[in-house]
Amino acid sequence: MTKRFASVLLLAAALLLAAPSALVAQSAPPSPAPTTFGDMGREAAAALRERWYAGKGAWHRCLPAGHCGTASRDWGAYSLTEALFLYWLTTGDASVTPVFQEIADVNPGYGPCRGGCREWSDVPLWDARAALDAYIVTRDRGALAKAVEDYTSVTSSDLYARGRCPEIDYQRPNGETGLKTLETDANRILVGVLLFRNTHDRRYLADARAHYDAVRAHFFDRAAHLYTVYVFDDGKTCRSVPHRFFASVNAAMVDAGRMLADATMDDRYGRDAQQTETAIEQNLNDARGVFADLQAENDIVSPLISMMWVRAIADAHARAWIVRNAEAAIGARTSDGSYGRFFDGPPPGGEVTMWETNGGLALAIAAAALEPATPVVAGAWRAPRTASVHLGVGSTYRFVGSGVAFTGTLGARPGHAQILIDGRPTVDQTGIWQGLNYVPPFDTVLFAWRWPRAGVHVIRFVTTETNAKEGPPFVDVRRANVLLP
Questions:
Q1: Strand bridging mode 226-227 / 62-63
Q2: I need a labelling partner for 325 at 20 to 30 A (CA). Which of 156, 165, 241, 317 fits?
Q3: Last residue of a domain, which of 381, 408, 426?
C-alpha cells in the first residue's frame, strides 16, 4: 500500500459506491431468492443500528436488551463502533453520522493520569480509537481533540511506564497485578500514527516508532510471526505468556506497521505487517481455514475484519479469507441477526454479548461490500447430534464427525484449560478460558472446530500453567454438539 491509510479507506468506499451494486433491491423473483452476502450485510447493519445501539453514544452489552446494561467506553463499546464504522466506509451511508456524533460527544476526554489515578491504561486508548472513527465520519474537531486527550492521558503519565521493562506500559497504575497487555501498547502505536496523520505533529510519530520497537522486543513471537498479548513484569524480570494471540492486537500491529511504512518510507514496517497478516490467515484458523476465536470476553474481532477488508480490496488472499469466513458465519447467526464468536460454530442459544458478536457483524458487512450478489448456503449446524456431558480438566472426548462444539457456563469460576485436537495444541493456546466474563454468568459456546470431512477425532482438555490473569486449571463442559458424517 503506497497511499495514506485513511485515503485508501475512503477511496475504497467511493469505488464501491460508484460501482453497480447488488445491494439495490431487485424485483421479486417467482421463487424465494437465496440469501446473499448483500443480505447478510444489510441485516448486520440493521442489527447494529436497531438492536445493539442504545442511543446517546452507548451500546447494549448483551441482547436481549436490558439484561446486562449499556457501555459507551472501553473495548466492548469500541468493537461495535468499529463494526458500524466499517459499514460507513463500505457504503458511505450519511444516516449514521448522528450516531458517530453521539459517540464523540459521550467520550469523556480523559485528563492526565497522575497521583491517585485508578484508570487502566488501555481504556483511554480504546476510546481514542472510537473518537478517531467518529472524527473521520463527522469531521468534528472536538472528536479529534478528545482523541488527543485520551491518548495523552496515558503517554504523559508516570504511573504506567514502570518496572523492569518500563518501555512497555502496565495495564494498571503503579504496576498492580504486574500485567502489561499489548492492548495498551498496540493501541498506543496505532493511535499515535493516526494522530500524526491528522495533525502532522511528529511527536506522535516518534512515540509510535519507539513503542513499536519495544513491542517487537517483548510481545513478538518470532517463530509464529504473531504477537502474544501478555507480559508479566514483577520488577525483576519481564516474562511473556506465550501463544496468546488476540485478534485485536495483531490486527492493530498490522495496521500500524503499514501506516508507519507509509509515514517513514521504511520498508521493514511493511514487511513486518505482511508477515503477521500471513500468519493470521494461515495459523489462527480451524482445519477448514476459518478463523477460530479462542479468546473469551477479553478480545474483539471487528478490528481484524476491518484490517482484512482493507487488504482484500487489492489482495486475493485476504478477499478469500473474508469470503470463506462469511460463508461459515451464517451458521453462527442468531434469529435477531447477531453472531456467536465462533464463525465455524453454532449460534449461541441464549444471551449474546457485544464482545462475541462484533466480529460476525463486521464480517457480514465486509463480505457484502466485496461480493454482494454471492449466494450463501444455510449453516451446517441446523441439526447436530447433541449430548449431555460432564468434561473437566483431564477429560477426553472421542467422536466421529466433521465438527464439534462444546457449551457451558461462561463465568462459572476462574480458570482455563488447554485443548489438544487429535493430539496437537492449537497455535493460539488459550484453549477454553471459562472464567472470564463481563456480564452475569451465562451458557454459551465455549469452543468450536470443524474439519473438511468427517472422521474419528479426539479432543483432550489438559492442565495448563496458572497465571495471575487466566487463573488455575479449570474447565466445565456440559454439552457436546457434533456434526455427523
A1: unpaired
A2: 241
A3: 381
